[in-house]
Specification:
single chain; mainly beta; globular
Amino acid sequence: NLFRSKFTITNTFFDKAFSDGLDSDFSEGIISNTSFDNLGNDGLDISGSQVEMYSTKFANINDKAISAGEKSKLVASLIEISDSGIALASKDLSSILLKNVEIYNVDLCLTAFQKKSEYGPASITIKGKKFNDCSENYLLEIGSNILLNNKTLLSNSIKVIDQLYGNKYGTKTIK
């Protein structure tokens, strides 16, 4: 767990953790050539953070491979996500920009929504993709935005949060 830190993580393997692989709160950093595998909760969970990520793989993640919240900004390229609950979740004024991403064998590809009332809607932009059915396998709340190879996806949920956290997708948050 990183808190109010500057970081660089390279050539690292996060494996068989009971909870999140990497949790970054109000931090700034770069992740490259890293793998997240067999995790009980999220792979990468960022809150109030600014992160760049390159050449990173996520596999067998029980909840969200990548979760961005509380006004986070994630810019990433060459990302592979497989065999996981939720590939990408952006919430609470966060933005995720991905280039060249592969997503396959996930329960839910994309979700963008507002979770906390003090924040606002979220966004996901993906350019260059290889994934099956993500243009149909998403949850998007009114006000939030998902742009998939220059195609704006239509809102399809009033309250996304009611379907997450083990209700339909992902796992229940452990307290």
